[in-house]
Structure formats: C-alpha cells, structure tokens
Amino acid sequence: MTVAKNERFLKALRREAVDRPPAWIMRQAGRYLPEYRATRTRAGSFLDLCKNPELCSEVVRQPLDRFPQLDAAILFSDILTVPDAMGLGLRFETGEGPVFDNPVRSAAQIAALPVPDPETELRYVMDAVRTIKADLAGRVPLIGFAGSPWTIACYAVEGGSSKNFHQVKGLRFTDPSAMHQLLDKITETTIAYLQGQLAAGAEALMVFDTWGGQLSAADYLEFSLAYGRRIREAIPATVPMLWFTKGGGQWLDAQIDAGFDGLGLDWTTDLRAARATYGERVALQGNLDPATLLGNAELIAQSTRATLDAAGSKPGYIFNLGHGITPDVTPDKLATVLKTVDSYRV
Ligand code: CP3
Q1: Shortest CA distance to 278 belongs to which of 298, 260, 292?
Q2: What is the distance in A from the centroid of ligand 1 to the CA of 330?
Q3: Which of 203, 262, 283, 305 is the most exposed place for a label (fewest CB within 10 A)?
Q4: Under a CB-based contact definition with an 8 Å cutoff, are residues 8 and 22 in contact?
Q5: Catalytically annotated residue among 78, 219, 261, 266
C-alpha cells in the first residue's frame, strides 16, 4: 500500500489503513536541537520566539528537515499563551519554568477575568499558524493545540509549576463553584482559540491535559474531562481531535465517551492492552518512555520495535513518545527511533 506522506497521520487518526504507523514527537521543535537553540537566541527568548511568526515557522520546519520520517508538524507556541492573554502576566525564568506575576486565587479575581478574543490578544499565534501553514505547503499536516482547562487552571492558580497542587486543589475543595467559574472562562477562551487556529489553517487539534492525572477519579470527570467534552462539542466533528491526559490511562473509556478521535497515552499505560480494549473505538497515540532515548542505539531500536509490536497491525495507531522529548537527548537518538518506525511494516 502506498500512502502519501502528508496523509498518514490524518488517516491513522481516523482509523483508516496506512502503510506504516505515522510518527511525530511531542516537543519535536525544541531544545534538544542545536538549530532550535540558535533560532531562540536570535529571537531573544522563548516568548519572543513564540511572538515571531517567521521564526515560529522556521523552528517548526527544523525537525522536518532533519528527520524526513516525521509525518506531522505541530504549531510552535505554548499552552500558557491562553492565561497570559487573560492578563496573568507570563514569564519564563531560566531553571524555574513558567511564572505568572498575577495568579488568580479568589472568587473575586476569577469573576474579573476577561475572555480574550483570539484575533486580538492572541493574534500572534493566529499569525504563526497562517505563516507555518503557508511555509509547509502541504508537506505534512499541521496540528494546532491548547492546554486543557484544568491544566491551565493549575498554572493560573499556582502561579507556575507545582509539586502538590495545593493552591489549585485548595480552591477546588474550599470554593468549588469559583473553581468551576474559572474552568468555564478558560474553556470559553480555549474554544475560541482553537476555532481561530482552525480558521488559520490547523488540520487537527490536540488538547494537553498534563495535570489531569493529579485528580481523583471522580474529580477527573468533573473538573477536567467535562470541560474537554465541552471543547470537543464546540469543534466540528469533521476536525479530528486528540486528547492527552498524562497519568490518565485508567480513564480511557470516559475519554472516548467525551468524543475524541484519538487519545494520547503516557508510558505508564499498557499499550497492547489499551489497543485490544479500545482499538475499535478510538485511535491511540504514544507511548515510548522519553527516557529510553538516554540509552544506546540498539536499546532504542529494540524498545521502539517493542512499542510498535504492542500497538499491533490494526488501523488507528500513531507513534509518539509518552511525553515530550527532553532537552538532554541528542538528535541522533531520535533519528534511531524514527528510522526504526520508518522501516517497520505492519
Ligand atoms: O511540541 C511542540 O514541539 C510544540 C510546542 C509546544 C511547546 N509547549 C513549546 C515549548 C507545546 C505543544 C507545548 C505544550 C506545553 N507547554 C505543555 C503541555 C505538554 C506537556 O509538556 O505536558 C505544558 C505543560 C507547557 C508549559 C510549559 N512550557 C512548561 C512547563 C515549560 C518549561 C519547562 C519545559 O518543559 O520545558 C514550557 C516551555 C516550552 N514550551 C519550551 C518549548 C520548546 C522550552 C522553552 C525554551 O526554549 O526555553
């Protein structure tokens, strides 16, 4: 079977047959690439880079030029552009990660939060999508993305990264209605933001629920997935959508019910079992442990083949890591992964 390079990813996401599993890598444009680090230096900072459509387009194409096996591109931006546009004041501190100068902690602060318009406050992201789309010229499909409302709320309330999420969980347990109001505003913003990305040329969408796995099973449904479902329902059913809850492998059934076409799996989930149980209902994406890339080439090739074997030959599988590629990995390690996928025949 021959499948055009720019079709593999979207076909697999729709659970149509392909010649080999499509592959793309979370954070494929990023710090493990020396050419990315050079462009970021030229831009000034990570946020300056996100606000420069031409340079965003350049870094999106860097991994595609280096690794011809990649079957999709992802918008270069960040999930935290949304709370930044809501007035929280995003900064990235070296060694510290993201920081918000104005975290939201009270019902009054939440009530005062605006729902920004994507074509004004987030225009730079829409411009990046348009520029990337034009420069890709159909080479591979472009994935747009946003954070899940719960994950964005974690950063908005904590004011940055967190170990135990006690600020945001404190809000959830002391004032659940304020928590819901915050999630509601983030959801409205996210819907408009994703619709804007679609209008600008994104061909599939992914929602990153990085911190959904911090919730209890019941709270996951109420505080994370319910808002994911609202986003899914607001996007046309013809647009394929992926949902990825890190640590959410126990709740795949509910994630399918929420209407997603594909689900991301982290490396703790048994891919073979998930494919056997859910493979007829949803496409699955993942889930090689990113730390595998610290090993040698032989180990990496073997582990990649084991992942592909676990996924099996039925349609509806997309190769990826179980989370983003880390900055301490060298590009040759990823080349080994992708060559292994490329030579694999189902
Ligand atoms: O995947 C891609 O190549 C597309 C671009 C992308 C970035 N961030 C660029 C980025 C995507 C899809 C994201 C999503 C994102 N951002 C998530 C969800 C996915 C996940 O990793 O769980 C989260 C939680 C964030 C928030 C964020 N952005 C953090 C916590 C950090 C700092 C720590 C870290 O992991 O790097 C960032 C910075 C960031 N976002 C970088 C990149 C390339 C590194 C910035 C730099 O160049 O210094």
Answers
A1: 260
A2: 18
A3: 305
A4: yes
A5: 78
Rounded Cα gap, residues 96 and 158, in angstroms: 13
Q: d(Cα 225, Cα 237) in Å, to the nearest integer? A: 18
The Cβ-side half-sphere exposure at 138, using a 13 Å CA radius, reads 1
pTM of the predicted structure, to 2 decimals: 0.98
pLDDT, tens digit, for every residue of 254-306?
999 999 999 999 999 999 999 999 999 999 999 999 999 999 999 999 999 99
Token couple for 27: 């954070």
- Residue 71, token pair as written in the block: 């079957």
Alpha carbon nearest to ligand 1 atom 19, residue? 208
Interatomic CA distance for residues 322 and 319, integer angstroms: 9
- How far is residue 281's CA from residue 304's CA, in Å, rounded to a whole number? 24
Instruction: Please give the structure tokens belonging to residue 163.
Output: 């170990």
78 is catalytic: yes
Q: Rounded mean pLDDT of the chain?
A: 97
Q: DSSP alpha helices (H): ranges in the chain?
A: 8-13, 34-43, 46-50, 53-66, 81-83, 107-111, 123-136, 149-158, 166-174, 176-200, 217-219, 226-234, 252-257, 271-278, 297-311, 331-342
The mean pLDDT of 12-17, rounded to a whole number, is 98
Whether the pLDDT of residue 346 is over 80: the answer is no
| Ligand 1, pocket-test mutation among 79, 88, 96, most atoms within 8 A of CB | 79
C-alpha Rg value of the chain to the nearest Å: 19
Pocket test for ligand 1, best of 25, 26, 27, 161 (most atoms within 8 A of CB): 27
From CA 8, how far away is CA 69, in angstroms rounded? 11
Question: What percentage of the chain carries pLDDT values higher than 70?
Answer: 100
DSSP character string of 192-221: HHHHHHHHHT--EEEEEETTGGGS-HHHII
